[in-house]
């Protein structure tokens, strides 16, 4: 006679069944069905988040366009490039701007004077933005020097102070000076618009060649050909025949 299963056997069989189902799920269902679905759900969530960010940015499109126009208008009112067309005129404008800055910081040049201002040649003429520079030397008091540098670097068009050297010393170049301050040397640099340095200040001189239809001998220049009547005439045919007969 077969033994009747006890309560303990029923729970043991139920546990074995659950274990078999769990192993089958981990080996068959999870890697082939559950994991791909979880990856798809993650991708959908990422796309939805990206879509929300894009929608938020598109909602700010009008505000950003307005701010861009304001910034462009501000930049047009404060240009970064020098307004002059050539390096020579730009160097003269830099010198005038330096003079104005010094006069503003020290009226009457009582505490700040310009010792030297020399244009510097541009070593890289093929650069996209031609460089215009002045070698400057000033003798100023400390507050006046700070005011001059602040005026030069914060004005319009944009200028740059490079290779700044400061030397504290006592001097008195004129009776109006106090005799104490800084001996300062630096390079004042600005940039022209691309291609601006190629524009000439004056029209090119006329060519030395004579116009078409005009005799080159009448030009009168040093390279002009001699007049046609100055050339030695060729011998006449009769004279040539007589010379051959005598020979």
From TrEMBL:
Region of interest (Disordered), ranges: 195-247
Transmembrane segments: 12-33
Entry keyword set: Membrane, Transmembrane, Transmembrane helix
Bias type Low complexity, positions: 211-247
Pfam name, any one: T2SSM_b
Name by which UniProt lists this protein: Type II secretion system protein GspM
Annotated source species: Stenotrophomonas bentonitica
Protein encoded by which gene: gspM
